[in-house]
Automatic annotation (TrEMBL):
<comment type="similarity">
    <text>Belongs to the TrpF family.</text>
</comment>
<keyword id="KW-0028">Amino-acid biosynthesis</keyword>
<dbReference type="InterPro" id="IPR044643">
    <property type="entry name" value="TrpF_fam"/>
</dbReference>
<dbReference type="Pfam" id="PF00697">
    <property type="entry name" value="PRAI"/>
</dbReference>
<dbReference type="InterPro" id="IPR013785">
    <property type="entry name" value="Aldolase_TIM"/>
</dbReference>
<keyword id="KW-0057">Aromatic amino acid biosynthesis</keyword>
<protein>
    <recommendedName>
        <fullName>N-(5'-phosphoribosyl)anthranilate isomerase</fullName>
        <ecNumber>5.3.1.24</ecNumber>
    </recommendedName>
</protein>
<keyword id="KW-0822">Tryptophan biosynthesis</keyword>
<keyword id="KW-0413">Isomerase</keyword>
<dbReference type="InterPro" id="IPR001240">
    <property type="entry name" value="PRAI_dom"/>
</dbReference>
<dbReference type="GO" id="GO:0016853">
    <property type="term" value="F:isomerase activity"/>
</dbReference>
<comment type="pathway">
    <text>Amino-acid biosynthesis; L-tryptophan biosynthesis; L-tryptophan from chorismate: step 3/5.</text>
</comment>
<dbReference type="InterPro" id="IPR011060">
    <property type="entry name" value="RibuloseP-bd_barrel"/>
</dbReference>
<feature type="domain" description="N-(5'phosphoribosyl) anthranilate isomerase (PRAI)">
    <location>
        <begin position="3"/>
        <end position="192"/>
    </location>
</feature>
Amino acid sequence: MYVKICGLREPGHVTAAVEAGADAIGFVLTRSPRRITPELARELAAEVPAHVLTVAVFAGETPQEVRRAATESGVRAVQLHGAHPHEDFTALKDLGLTLVRAGAAAGADLRCGAFDEDMLIVDAPRPGSGEPWDWAAVRGLPQGRWMLAGGLGPANVAEAVAAAQPWGVDVSSGVETAPGVKDAGLIREFVAAARG
Ligand SMILES: O=C(O)c1ccccc1N[C@@H]1O[C@H](COP(=O)(O)O)[C@@H](O)[C@H]1O
């Protein structure tokens, strides 16, 4: 089970996620209570070992804006949330980064790779809201390297995995004590429960 912890803002929480066994960690570079600057993302990413993927998260920015911020932050992957056209992914291909497409299930092409992306995230309608949704509704529909997200936490991730049978999971709100405030204990519990 591939596990991504998103919305990290502090070195201690980055360390907690890495030590807990996360496969990927996300830095939000778009409008959100979890937003950080590309400069801070670069500082945090510098401490992450090579086997953990560092991801910059965007929602609605132009490919030029994504390109600039991703380069400044030194991450190894970019995640585009929302209705980005195929051309936006094509425009970023030459960066050589892992490309992650993310959005709600309704109306989306659920084949990972359909937009030349490397990973797909199937999320709730409002990303980063912590709102659970009907995870079972997508069981058997997405194809390839796809992560389930939206309203997951230590207490429900095993149920969600059983319902949707994803390749991986992605969490932000569910490992926080308040919007944007991560908790190392919840991060550890989430990773263990996801793989349990
Ligand atoms: O985490 C955010 O604040 C965020 C903001 C804008 C776009 C994406 C964001 N994060 C992604 O949202 C889900 C997690 O949602 P939840 O809070 O666990 O319900 C995940 O895909 C994050 O990568």
